[in-house]
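Deliverable D5.2: sample structural annotation.
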Amino acid sequence: MAEVIYMPKLSDTMTEGVVASWLKNVGDPVKSGELLAEIETDKATMEFESFYDGVLLHIGVETGKAAAVNALLAVIGNSGEDISAILSTASATETSTETAPKQEQEAPKPVADPTPAPIPAPTVAQPVKTSAPVAMVSNDRVYASPLAKKLADERGIDLNYIQGSGENGRIVKRDVDHYQPHPNGTTTSAGKSMGLTTETFTDEPVTQMRKTIARRLAESKFTAPHFYLTLDIDMDQAISFRSSVNATEGFKISYNDMVIKAVALALRKHPMVNSAWMGDFIRRNQHVHIGVAVAVDEGLLVPVVRFADTKGFMEISAEVKDFAGRAKEKKLQPSDWEGNTFTISNLGMFGIESFTAIVNPPDSCILAVGGIKEIPVVKKGQVVPGNVMKVTLSCDHRVVDGASGAAFLQTFKNYMENPISMLL
């Protein structure tokens, strides 16, 4: 008997998925536990295994297409088995990007919990004009994501001719999707050229991750009453402490590791800040799970350092480095990014002095950390050189009041200005 496989819900926020690649073709034998496809969720590209033995009789979502959770993904059964009845029944709920253009032409209708419609393939409004063929990337090493390399190899595209739009010029999936051959035989990226004399643009499909970021942060910003508290922290002692630790062979910690530890210890003393608005009640978390925002090609992921208040600097450092590496390769699992009770967003390494962040649900607070800046400061009545780091705490006023947030920041400040106290 044929078995129907539906688009799985691979994360708590996933509403639809994109089939990055099929690892089996129609007619291929399939065994339970074998990899069937790679599915791009709102946070990662994940391998999907078959639960059944048989033959792959039907593929419901083609490579590169999106489908809603629980849409028909595939059918596995016996060779030659008639599945017309199954396909007829499933057609009413099956989602295909072939219908997306018609859906986009209709006037938007507000609904309580919208499910994003599939996005049509990007189109270039006007052709790119160049005076001569231009190779967009040098012959040096090409930096590209594994999925981008795989797609380029399948399509016979030389990555040397693609301009990467990811971090540090890294080539990602969307760059390969937008690749266009140059009219004179060489290649360039859509909408990118040297010496343009005409207006050009590209329409990029919204990724699953970006859709989720937009929805969740819009909900947070417009439903949670935010207020902000900013504080300057004297980092002289923290700089000395870190230099001493890193001078020891085998020990390397970052300022971000110190921030995570200080936040975790401060949350232990201020459980009000380590809370969540649950609608009909407020949840006071006794455990401390710190979400650490990590930038990836298509947005942000927030892997979670669990029980951070019980971990030492080295353990936190190793965990964050592992998260960052796996996040950039889209290898994080749902268990890695779920369960945060507080979030830290650090842009100090980019030279940002200060900024405000949007609360990351279900947390009630998020700490925005700026860079360390050398400025004149007054100490004991004298103007002397000093190193100052500015932090801003964004709070959900439904849970945290101004005095509670300020008390938390003062405790955090004390830990950072006296880092040895975090070891006691």
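Annotation notes: The chain has three domains: 3-100, 122-204, 208-423. The radius of gyration is 25 Å.
The annotation will be released with the project's public dataset once the embargo ends.
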